[in-house]
Each structure stands twice: as structure tokens, then as C-alpha cells.
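Q: Is it fine to ask for two folds in a single conversation?
A: Yes, each is treated on its own. Send the first.
Q: Here.
A: Result:
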Amino acid sequence: MANFIIEFTPFEANNNAQLITTATVKNPDTGEVYFTEPVIVDVTADMTPEQINEVVKQKTSGFAARVEAIELAKQFAGTVPQI
């Protein structure tokens, strides 16, 4: 399992009924930033704060696999392919 944390910027709202935050995914031990990505939530009139947080959770659910792929790719850096 990948070891990472996600830090979010405060939500900003736009005129399209969306909330936007930026997720920064980093290694908590080294501080290395793996990637930064906007997270956009489409808001409806009846949404609760819990529902909004659930959408953010769903939109970031693939981040662990991405971090694992990044770490795996780093293991091959500097090697010469053998075919």
C-alpha cells in the first residue's frame, strides 16, 4: 500500500454550481510531491456537506494506485531496457 497524504486547498465556488479544490498528493516522510490535481465537485441544491465530502473522496479514490505506479516507475529509472 502506498504511503501518501492528500492536502487540499480551501474550496472555491464558481458560477457553474461547482466547488473546486486543489489536491496535493505527497510522501509524508520525505515531503516529495507526487502530483497536484484540481478536484471539481458539481453541487446540487439539496447536497449536504457530507455528500460533498463523499464526492471528493470518490474523486480521489484512485490516487493510491497512481502513487504506487509512480513509485514502481522510479525503480526502473536509469536502467536500460533489455529486449
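Q: Second one now.
A: Result:
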Amino acid sequence: MSRSVPADQVSADPALGGATTHLLDRLLREPGPGRGRVVDFIDYFGFFIGNIADIALVAGVGLAVLLQLRGVTLAGTAAR
């Protein structure tokens, strides 16, 4: 039995997950609450250095933009 997932959930989940991870890094890492740093460890061919949360944010927002351009509404149905 398959279950369909709303398009907005598919795009929002990675973006919210990446944003939440960045927020938790800022709140919980040294040197203290609210002053922490986000740990970046992936070198993107000299363009910039990022992390998994960056990938999730870009993928989620990119998918949301693509869905919007294709006319898919937040309810996951095609606009008329």
C-alpha cells in the first residue's frame, strides 16, 4: 500500500531540518548558548565550505521553487 506525500512536505522537511540543525549548532556548541558556531566540513570544489544542513536547506528551497514554477500548490495539487 503506497501513500502519497504532499509536495509542500517534501520540500519543507529538508529545509526545516537544515534550519533546525543550524539553530541547534548556534545554541548548543562552544563557546556557549547563543554564541556557538556552525561546523562546516565539506569543501565544494573551492566555491565554499558547508555541511549536510546546507545541502538540506538548498535542496528543500530549490524543490519548493521548482514546484512553484510548475504550478504545484502547497496542498500538493496542480493549480488550475
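Q: Anything structural to flag on that second result?
A: Two points. The CA atoms of residues 18 and 53 lie 4 Å apart. The mean pLDDT is 81.
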